[in-house]
Design brief:
The chain has one domain: DD-peptidase/beta-lactamase superfamily (Beta-lactamase), CATH 3.40.710. The protein is built from nine helices and twelve strands. A five-stranded antiparallel sheet has the order 4-3-12-11-10, sandwiched between helices. A three-stranded antiparallel sheet has the order 5-9-8. A two-stranded antiparallel sheet has the order 1-2. Helix 1 packs antiparallel against helix 2.
Length: 309
């Protein structure tokens, strides 16, 4: 069975046992405090890597910037709906700059129609204000709302905004599609844990574009309904966690596709705040495979919770 061991600063797959993988992961901690807080998460990710999954993760302290967790964090992997954050960034920036109005009415068109995540496809309304579509895309990862917003602002503008911020390894590649042909981008989005934690740290600090743009994005993402991955450990109400609950506050975005589970977020607690990103690409053959990935992501969440609370 493939295992995981350290090569330089990264956890990489190689031959070996699960015990060797876990021992390598524990050795990766940067200092004693981080080891005390993230040993369980490292072990869980090492087990996934030992089973053949591609794993990338990073967590940083919001105040100090200290790296708490780092596993192949520069690796570029498919991130499914995580790329919608870059669309929301462009929409928010255009609102700040006055290039768009929050009350602009946007219509759905046949070419925008797509299934899977979201609720607009199940509603009768043919149109919504731009600001409502941003909320739908952030809160419910609404695919139809995403496509309508992307048609409005343009994929080129989303890319240019990201490049202007120095983002090189994270990108929204295409609109959402029910199926991808040979001429389409193979993934909706890709990203690296290092860039995603940098982006969310900047959003939390009000430093991405400007404070108004950043805090608007954070407010949208705080409405996110998917707490099934890392955030499953935080004990928050999936449908109502916009305010502090037991001293915890969260904004996050998840990405789900066949063989992909990804989450990036910011968790604040009474003792500290963290920005984190975890992506796992795996063979989604059995339900047990998927549950193992979700269990490992929850373990990372427990580590984060213990650090901030």
């Amino acid at each position: 069975m493939a295992g995981a061991e350290l090569e330089g600063d990264h956890l990489v797959t190689s031959s070996g046992t699960r015990r060797e993988a876990r021992r390598a992961a524990v050795g990766r901690h940067r200092d004693g405090q981080a080891a005390d807080n993230f040993v369980a998460g490292f072990g869980a990710l090492a087990d996934l890597a030992a089973g053949g999954a591609q794993v990338s993760a990073r967590a940083v302290d919001l105040r100090t910037g200290r790296v708490l967790l780092s596993v192949d964090d520069t690796l570029v992997l498919p991130t499914a709906s995580i790329g919608k954050v870059l669309l929301l960034l462009e929409v928010s920036a255009q609102l700040t700059e006055g290039a768009s109005s929050r009350y602009d009415i946007l219509d759905r068109e046949p070419a925008d129609e797509v299934a899977d995540s979201g609720i607009w496809q199940h509603l009768s309304a043919p149109s919504f204000p731009l600001i409502d579509l941003a909320v739908l895309a952030a809160a419910a990862s609404d695919n139809l709302a995403t496509n309508v917003l992307l048609r409005r602002v343009g994929l080129a503008a989303v890319r240019e905004r990201g490049e202007s911020l120095g983002i090189r390894r994270t990108a929204l590649l295409d609109r959402v599609r029910d199926s991808r042909g040979p001429d389409d981008a193979p993934q909706l989005s890709v990203g690296s844990a290092a860039e995603l934690t940098w982006l969310f740290t900047g959003i939390a600090r009000g430093e991405i574009v400007d404070a108004a743009t950043s805090y608007r994005i954070a407010d949208w993402l705080a409405l996110g309904m998917d707490l099934s991955m890392v955030a499953s450990a935080f004990g928050l109400d999936p449908l109502a966690h916009g305010r502090s609950d037991h001293g915890l506050s969260l904004f996050n975005k998840t990405g789900t596709d066949a063989g992909v589970r990804s989450e990036v977020g910011v968790l604040r607690g009474p003792r500290a705040g963290v920005a984190y990103a975890v992506t796992v690409v795996f063979r989604d053959v059995r339900l047990a495979d998927r549950l193992a990935v979700l269990g490992a992501m929850r373990t990372i969440g427990i580590d984060l919770l213990e650090y901030v609370h």
